[in-house]
Amino acid sequence: MTQQRITVIRGDGIGPDIIDATTKILDKVGCDFAYDYADAGLVALEEHGELLPQETLDLIAKNKVALKGPLTTPVGEGFTSINVSLRKQFKLYANLRPVLSFKGTKARYEDIDIITVRENTQGMYSGLGQVVSEDGNEAEAMSKITRDGAEKIVTFAYELARREGRKKVTAVHKANILKSTSGLFLKVAREVGERYPDIESTEMIVDNTCMQLVMNPHQFDVIVTTNLFGDILSDLCAGLVGGLGMAPGANIGEDCAIFEAVHGSAPDIAGKNLANPTSVILAAAQMLEYLNMGDKAEKIRAALKDVIETGDRTTRDLGGEAGTTEFTQALLDRL
């Protein structure tokens, strides 16, 4: 059997710390991956003169699976979001962000289990047609939704729900105001929902969704929505379970996938052995499921659950006093 090769982008700030912790976990659980390391972000800018070198793109294209730490895109003109560029380059149309409650996180809610399925390449977030007038007094951007893009992402959400035995899919929109773009998305979502009579289909305006997530999050199961709304809602959902440090992300295309920590690079704590690696560890668990290694993913989640619930060597954001290495060792001990 050919050894699975994984492109690993350690990233900026705390990225190397949490990625290295994660590869130790993957090795311990017996994945036997071969890792091909590649640069992106500020590290790549310093080493190669560009944020996203061609060598990195070639490695992702070759291996088809990548694990990525947080990247920093410099603020200002002339720099395009690295994450947006990767999604477009590899046609990673589905962004999959699950949130799951872990006892011991001191989150406001218990028993949260919500998956946000976000269209990843279209809509306002894609940055299409951005123009600023010469005098700096006007700015424009374009939002574009296609029937094909909407159908692919909504179908992805329903297939995911069916595969995981979930009961409800909620299509989130703003079709009452954005009658063209959001209107088309909602129309397609309704059509796709009719093909899945075994799954309850609901729809909700995005601002009401935000309120309902805060007031009664347990009513949600799978949320499917457009790019910008999905970006906002998935962060809100992360807040329900303890923050972005507990939220993984998967970017999935037809033949390529990138799994990542969804939080920032936190340069203020980089190299200080303070970062919580849970987000990228959970992203690695998503990667294992993608590679049909679900049994190993469950072992990792079970170890995380036990460490966090018992408070054994947890990081400060989880109420403990341990560092990244101690937290990682607690996981390794259980595995």
What does this structure look like?
This protein is of the alpha/beta class and 335 residues long. The protein folds into 2 domains: 1-105 and 244-335, Isopropylmalate Dehydrogenase (3-Layer(aba) Sandwich); 122-240, Response regulator (Rossmann fold, 3-Layer(aba) Sandwich), CATH 3.40.50. 40% of the residues lie in helices and 17% in strands. The protein contains 11 helices and 12 strands. The strands form 2 sheets. A 10-stranded mixed beta sheet has the order 2-1-3-12-11-4-5-10-8-9, sandwiched between helices. A hairpin with a 4-residue loop joins strand 11 and strand 12 (257-261). Helix 1 packs parallel to helix 11 (324-334), helix 5 crosses helix 6 (181-193) and helix 10 (294-310) crosses helix 11. The longest helix is centred in the middle third of the chain and has 17 residues, at 147-163. The mean pLDDT is 95.
Strand order of the largest sheet: 2-1-3-12-11-4-5-10-8-9
Give the CA-CA distance, first to last residue.
Answer: 24 Å
Mean pLDDT: 95
Number of domains: 2
Largest sheet: 10 strands, mixed
Listing every helix as H and every strand as E from the N terminus to the C terminus, the arrangement reads EHEHHEHEEEEHEHEHEHEEHHH
Q: Note poorly predicted spans.
A: none
CATH homologous superfamily identity of the largest domain: Isopropylmalate Dehydrogenase
The CATH class of the largest domain turns out to be Alpha Beta
CATH architecture of the largest domain: 3-Layer(aba) Sandwich
As a whole number of angstroms, the C-alpha radius of gyration is 20 Å
**Number of contiguous helices:** 11
- Using the coordinates shown, work out and report the CATH topology of the largest domain: Isopropylmalate Dehydrogenase
